[in-house]
Amino acid sequence: MSNPLALIGRGATYVALSLAAFVSVFPFFWMVIGSTNTNADLIRGKATPGDALWRNIEVFFTSADLPRVVFNSFFIAGVGTVLTLLVSSLAGYGFEVFRSRTRERVFAVMLLMLSVPFAALMIPLFILMANLKLMNSYQAIILPSVASIFIIFYFRQATKAFPHELRDAARIDGLKEWQIFLFVYMPVMRSTYAAATIIVFMTHWNNYLWPLIVLQTNDMKTLPLVVATLSQGYTPDFAVVMVGSIFATLPTLIIFFLLQRRFVEGMLGAVK
Predict the structure, then answer these.
(1) CA 247, 253, 257: angle at the middle one, nearest 5?
(2) 128-141: per-residue pLDDT in tens?
(3) pLDDT in tens, 251-262
(4) Is 191 within 8 Å of 262 (Cβ atoms)?
(5) Half-sphere exposure (CA, 13 Å, Cβ side) for 126?
(6) pLDDT tens digit sequence for 150-204
(7) How far is 95 from 201, CA to CA, in rounded Å?
(8) Domains parsed from the chain with CATH numbers
(9) Quick check: 107 and 156 in contact, CB under 8 A?
(10) Which sign, positive or negative, has the C-alpha torsion 222, 226, 232, 238?
(11) Which of 8, 75, 161, 164 has its CA 20 to 30 A from that of 93?
């Protein structure tokens, strides 16, 4: 016979998880429902599907040069993700594999820099980009985030589980260090790369504050900036904002579901 206290505890756990799931899913549900209604219905709190979806999509597509905006977002997120993964994984690999007297001190200083808010870095970064003549360019968005301290830390921690016997065997076979990194380390750590890809892509895709500062023309704007613009003014059409939010959310959802299994393995530190 089952323990009544255990049953009560299990029931309470399921109730708590159900509430947490509802709280997590409801904003997306409201976003989808809102995109099918008119602005007036949305303001009144209508929670059932409407018939204004295609009208809202049409307004959203005519509100900006959407193909150009989507290209900007994918280019910045794609190139930024690749460069961040390459540079940060190299740094994380180097911090763990190569030993020196000052290694831990340098790494500690880097971790300390995580406590510095981005707001404190905006003005120096702005001045730097202006002096380099990089304002209103892709480079101004991508370059400051290429060396991510958090991703370096993540790769260093993951590298602790990397079998160093493989590296020693590769050295015996005559491979140079860059060949070991490319042909041994990267394939073995693919789950870590998958998890980092999701984190970095979402960071680049959802980046708002820094692009708002350095991107000064409409042809360089990204999707988050366009969606934010739709909600400005005296009479914003929130139904159109919901459509824009769906378009801005879909790429990150697709990336996550494609790499979901690898993401879980990478967060757990799986090495294969």
Answers:
(1) 150
(2) 999 999 999 999 99
(3) 988 888 888 777
(4) yes
(5) 14
(6) 999 999 988 888 888 888 888 888 888 888 898 889 988 888 898 899 999 999 9
(7) 24
(8) 65-271 (1.10.3720.10)
(9) yes
(10) negative
(11) 75
